[in-house]
Structure formats: C-alpha cells, structure tokens
Amino acid sequence: MEKIKIGICGYGNLGRGVESEILKNSDMELIAVFSRRDSLAINSNAAVVHIDNMEEWKDKIDVLILCGGSANDLPIQGPQFAKIFNTVDSFDTHAKIPEYFKEVDEAAKLGGNVALISIGWDPGMFSLMRLYAGAILPRGETYTFWGKGVSQGHSDAIRRIEGVENAVQYTIPSQSAMEKAKNGEGAGLATRDKHARECYVVATEGADKERIEREIKEMPNYFADYDTTVHFITAEELKANHSGMPHGGNVIHIGRTGDNNSQVIEYKLQLDSNPEFTASVLIAYARAAYCLSQKGETGARTAFDIAPALLSPVDSETLRKELL
Asked: What is the DSSP string of 90-145?
C-alpha cells in the first residue's frame, strides 16, 4: 500500500510531537520538515527545507501539517499554504474561527485542496463532544473545563510579547465551579468563575516587567477575561520546574428527558503530553484530509464535517465488525 506523504511546517513542541507520533502510523511517512531556521537538527530521516522553498515540494507532499502558533503564524500560514497543499492545523483562537475558516476555505478552493482547520482537542475533540451532547440532549447545558495544564497557544502568545525570553502558562479550573456544573447548578457561571490562568515568565535582561505583565493581563481572547497571575522567574527555574507539558479537561453536559429526568454526559482527557496528544489528533485528521482529496473534494472543513471512519487506518468492514 502506498503511504500518505506528510510534511510538517514548524518544529516547536507540536512539530516535534508530530514527527515522533507519525512513526507509529504505518500508512504514513514523513517526507519533509519546513522551518524558518537555516539549520535544524531533527529526529528522523526527513528532509529539512527552508519555509521559503515549500512550493518546490507541492507534488511531493500529500498533506502538510501546520504546527505554528495561532496568535501570529496560522492566520498567515493557513490561507497561504492551503493554496499549495492539503493542510491540517490546530488554530485555537475560538472567537476568530469563523473568519479564519472563510479565509482558508477560499484559499483551499483556489488551490484545489482540502484544508482541515482547528483540529486538536479543543477546538477539536471537545467541540465534537459539545455537539453530540447538545444534539442528543437539547434540553440542557454544556460546560467545558480545561486543566490543570500547560496551554501551548497561550504560552506561545506570551512568548511573542517584546521582552519575553520564555514563558509557560497554566490553565487552572475552579473545582467549586465544576461541582456546581455537575450538580446542575452552573447556570450563570461567568468565564472568570470557571478558570484562572497562571503564567511563569522569563524576561530578557532590562525588560520592563510591569509592561509585560500588563500586556499579558489585557490580551484579548487569551487573558483579559480571566483572573491572571504573572510570576517572573529565571530560565533555570523554568527549566527545572515547568518543562513538562501536561493538560486535559472535561466537557460536562447536564440534560433532561421525559418529565424531568436528569442525564449527565461527561468526556474527560488527562494528558501527560499536550503536544504529543494534539499531534496524534492532527495525524488522524491528516488521513481524513488525504481521503477527501483523493475523492476530489476541495475547501476548508472542521472536525464537525469529518466522518469518524475517515480518521482510522482500518477499513470500514473491520470497524463495523470490531468496534460497532
């Protein structure tokens, strides 16, 4: 069987996670890693190519997995590269997904490609759980809690601030708010009631820490709606105490059927490695992008639009026999 040829754009935590996990998928092979850096030491036999030369690989890559950040990379790279390749990305700025979808959709159709956007666990897997729960139990409320864990997107957004050398951001759920949700008492919970954000920042020498803290706390779509604490620490402290990348969360739906029978749906993730799990989701959806492209489809899609069977390397007959 001919393998699906994969390219990776970006070689941070997520890009390395894709590289690592793709080796566990026998129907795929990693062809190239694209980076802005002139030299790059990777852990596989794939080619290392400067991002400016990507178009030369148009006919050598079946699906390009975009591993850049949502704050600055993907808004540009998503539409740009969807004109050239079938793509999958993990754009996670929820408020901007509709406009991002439109831009990528137009670019992918122009290039005759398929582009799957906002693929990961939230948005992505959690989005599906919210849709399923609300469709099955329309008389109800859905609550999403994230953490405690390291958010890649929020950490990346902090690192883009002038004067920040490195940073890690933890999302911390309110246990009391979660209990209220499970007990059907969550109506009226505000965004600020459900989560707090804790940031550990390494500032460059001489940087204005007050300005950095203010920019973090006032950042729209990331921190402005939350109680946010900023700690300035040394690079040594960050490496010693904050080098792991756990995460997870819960989607809880409290619904009612009949006269007033309570029905609870709960979906939970507990992750040792956020980037490796997100990479695994991206890889599964890269398989779906390839299948859709082979059928001649074009344009952008989200997790809502993809049939579950397209994610699996197993044929439909076996899926029906073993999993249904």
From this structure: ----GGGHHHHHHHHHHHHHHHT-EEE-S-SBTTBHHHHHHHHHHHH--SEEEEEE
Query: Could you read off the pLDDT of 147-197 as tens digits, one per residue?
Result: 999 988 899 899 999 999 999 999 999 999 999 888 888 888 888 999 999
Cβ-proximal residues to 169 (8 Å cutoff; 6+ apart), any chain: 150, 151, 154, 155, 158, 197, 198, 199, 200
Burial 248-281 (b: 16+ CB within 10 A, else e): bbbbbbbbeeeeeeeeebebebebebbbbbbbbb
Nearest to 145 by CA among 191, 183, 185: 191
Give CA–CA dist 239/137, Å, rounded: 45
In this structure, is the dihedral angle defined by the CA atoms of residues 83, 114, 88 and 314, taken in order, positive or negative? negative
What pTM does this model have?
0.89
The end-to-end CA distance of the chain, in Å, is: 26
The residues, ordered by sequence, that sit 6+ positions from 185 with a Cβ below 8 Å of its Cβ are none
Look at residues 69, 74, 72 and name the one whose alpha carbon lies nearest to residue 87: 74
